[in-house]
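Researcher: Structure prediction, please.
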Amino acid sequence: WSIMPWRGKKIPLFSEEICICHNEPFKFEDLENMPTIGYRNTSELVIDLYLQWWHDHFSTPPQAGGTRVDTPDIAYELALVGLGPAFLPKFLVVNSKEKNFFSYDLKFKDGSPLTRDTTVFLDEESEKLPLVSAFLKFLADYDFDSFQKNYKSK
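Model: Predicted structure follows.
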């Protein structure tokens, strides 16, 4: 089966690099045998991207039974207290003040980073609605780079 291509408008907002983090040092190759922390609201496309990265590095599937939470912030907190390594947006980790938090940038074998892209999908008719138009203007004016640089985990 294949996904039908989107026929409407696509507005890319930002990309974020993904890393894997834990509260204690770990060897990259040990990930293959560790249950990881992820989040439920991850889209199928992003899950496929994670699996593509995983199979680029490991010959076995990811461990079943890992923890799934609602948000990256919760995954961050669970990794921080030692419940396992978490796949996280890099900006969460870069802006962390935690000294005992160890991470690996996730890269494919060709050296390209694993990134998650955020895009708005809409049809041409929706764009004409005043509320949608106002929201799109807000997104166009919003400084996502500044948000990522200044974000602080709780």
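Model: The CA atoms of residues 99 and 108 lie 27 Å apart.
Researcher: Thanks, that helps.
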